[in-house]
Amino acid sequence: MNIFLRIKHWQLFLLSWGPLSLVFILLYTQPMVFANYFQLWLIIFLISLMNSFVWVWAVGRELQKRTLETHSKLFKIAFWIPFIYIWAFISFMLFNVFVRKVKSINVEIEMMVFIAIGVLSIICIIYGLVLIGRLLRTVELEKRPAWKDHILESVLMLFPPVGLWIVQPKLNKIIAGRKQ
What we know:
Layout: H1 3-6, H2 9-16, H3 18-29, H4 31-36, H5 38-65, H6 72-100, H7 107-141, H8 147-158, H9 160-176
């Protein structure tokens, strides 16, 4: 997983957001092509999603190793809840469409459950990314930063397609052992 920490920002972007961008461009410009090859586009989407999750996991674990802070359990919970939720949601929808081939009987109940867990997942994602922003700044400053000291890194982590262009070079320097 450390390869995700060593690659350049543009390589990371192509791995995680390039295929995802392609899927969305085709969805909006060529909906019939998208519909005809839905399984292929779903696989590409899932690979992109997996690459994004692996990057967040690798960054979080590496930065926690380099600091004295112990947020390991909270980070793992904040990581795994959305990860499992997304895979369960996609699996459930695919099961309904391709296996059951019927509309759900309890749509309201299912949607309420998925919305409730989805809100929890969003909170976990925000917590995990802000934690990574703070840990990144902690490693850079070699002390626990105040909120104002890590707000930029935390905001950048919340917008990964843009943030990884700024955060990844910092991570490359940290991994290489150089100070900024």
